[in-house]
Amino acid sequence: MKHIEKHTEPQGLAFAREHHLTRDEFGSQCEMMYIQCREQAYEEQSGECAYTGMPLTKSAVVHIDHFKKKSIYIHLTFDWSNLFAAVKDNRFGSDYKDKQIKGHNAAHYYQLLINPALDTPESYFWYSNDGMVHPKDGLTSTDLGKAITTIKLFNLNQSTLIHRRRELWQILQTYRDLPIDIITSALKDYGFSFVISNYQS
């Protein structure tokens, strides 16, 4: 997970709010506006899932996720700061997060969950060469709790993600004598750019 700089919201969101559309109505009646939102999120996130780092390729099922669930925080349905492009997979990421969060525990969990637009995830995690993600050493008790909760609620140590990060570490080992700009360019479509940054450090 890495920090995401959110830009000015797509125009379609204002239209949706003004016309009091539901999320489903926006997707079905304003398809081009929805696509615009997804494309802008893709650009802001450099083609990576906001939570897992998986590449947002044509073969991946990608959707716009509400960081805070729209069923609980309906006023944030069309709030751009609450919307991220994410890979849809019930084993990890946005779908897994949404299964864990219910009305009775939402306030508690969202207080502990790292938001990639508001927080700097790079300050919380490090990645070992076996593909695992870990809380960084030296975190305060509050930040350690956020790191542990985020790993748990997004299931960031799920086997598929571990395998992909371990594979990337192995590739990086073969590239280790090359300049970092060449490595970054060669692996730009692989995803998990934060693992490359971790490898550099």
Quick rundown:
With 201 residues, the chain is mostly helical. The chain has helices spanning 11-18, 23-29, 31-44, 93-100, 106-112, 141-153, 159-174, 180-186, 193-200, and strands spanning 62-66, 83-87, 125-127, 133-135.
Give a description of the structure:
The protein is mainly α and 201 residues long. Helix content is 44%, strand content 8%. The chain is built from 9 helices and 4 strands, in the order αααββααββαααα. It has a two-stranded antiparallel sheet. A two-stranded antiparallel sheet has the order 3-4. The radius of gyration is 17 Å and the shape is globular. The protein starts with 10 loop residues before the first helix and ends with a helix.
Q: Give the number of DSSP strands.
A: 4
Low-confidence blocks of residues: none
Q: How does the overall form come out from the CA principal axes?
A: globular
Q: Based on the structure, what is the oligomeric state of the protein chains?
A: single chain
Structural class assignment: mainly alpha
**Average pLDDT:** 93
Q: What count of helical segments does DSSP give? A: 9
Spatial arrangement of strands, main beta sheet:
1-2
Distance between the termini: 16 Å
Listing every helix as H and every strand as E from the N terminus to the C terminus, the arrangement reads HHHEEHHEEHHHH
Radius of gyration based on Cα positions: 17 Å
Helix proportion range: 40-55%
- Portion in beta strands: 5-15%
